[in-house]
């Protein structure tokens, strides 16, 4: 069962609410100097020249003063918790700058994505979090980039996880 904050439950139950669900993304790759932080909401104006909007949050240790999540026009489908589902997420970004496409085409190995769902009025309270998703597919169309992310398949986990030997679990063998 997923636990939601009181603000999130009130926003879901209300007929109309000022609360907006925001998806935060952190993209990590060895060739990047710093993680790329993106937000689906233009919560506040970060600068006027150039005009930049974004969300300030402490999620994943980000310093809100110096490392805000930059607003990008995007839609996201979060991974399902269903056992029959492959655990894929999908992000569709509107291409506002050609540098996005150039950056994606420059990667030769997989980037790691972290996603969190927060409310706009309480961006430090994480409602849902998906960590360590791997970028598996990047499709670039005319005006949008479609990214498919996946977590490690449960079939790849070792079973049984290990043997209960005396060296690994000495408390079991007295």
What would a concise description of this structure say?
This protein has helices at 6-13, 98-106, and strands at 21-28, 36-39, 44-48, 51-55, 69-71, 74-77, 88-94, 112-119, 122-140, 144-150. It has 174 residues and is mainly beta.
List keywords for this structure.
single chain; 174 residues; mainly beta; 10 strands
Describe the structure.
The structure is a single chain. With 174 residues, the protein is mainly β. It has helices at residues 6-13, 98-106, and strands at 21-28, 36-39, 44-48, 51-55, 69-71, 74-77, 88-94, 112-119, 122-140, 144-150. Strands 3-4-5-2-1-8-9-10-7-6 form a 10-stranded mixed sheet, with no helix packed on it. It is globular, with a radius of gyration of 19 Å. The two termini are 38 Å apart.
Gyration radius, rounded: 19 Å
Shape: globular
- Give the strand content: 35-45%
How widely separated are the two ends? 38 Å
Main beta sheet strand tally, sense and closure: 10 strands, mixed
Q: Roughly what is the average pLDDT, rounded to an integer?
A: 79
What is the count of β-strands? 10
Helix/strand-derived category reads mainly beta
Instruction: Output the strand order for the largest sheet.
Output: 3-4-5-2-1-8-9-10-7-6
């Amino acid at each position: 069962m997923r636990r939601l904050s009181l603000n999130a439950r009130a926003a879901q139950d209300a007929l109309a609410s000022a609360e907006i669900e925001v998806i935060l993304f952190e993209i990590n790759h060895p060739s990047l100097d710093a993680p790329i932080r993106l937000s689906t909401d233009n919560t506040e104006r970060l600068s006027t020249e150039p005009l930049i909007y974004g969300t300030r949050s402490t999620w994943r240790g980000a310093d809100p003063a110096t490392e805000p999540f930059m607003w990008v026009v995007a839609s996201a489908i979060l991974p399902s918790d269903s056992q029959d589902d492959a655990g894929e997420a999908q992000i569709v970004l509107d291409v506002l700058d050609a540098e996005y496409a150039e950056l994606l085409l420059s990667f030769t190995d997989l980037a790691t994505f972290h996603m969190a769902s927060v409310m706009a009025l309480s961006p430090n309270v994480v409602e849902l979090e998906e960590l360590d998703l791997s970028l598996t597919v990047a499709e670039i169309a005319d005006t949008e980039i479609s990214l498919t992310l996946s977590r490690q398949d449960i079939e790849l986990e070792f079973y049984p996880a290990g043997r209960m030997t005396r060296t690994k679990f000495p408390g079991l063998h007295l």
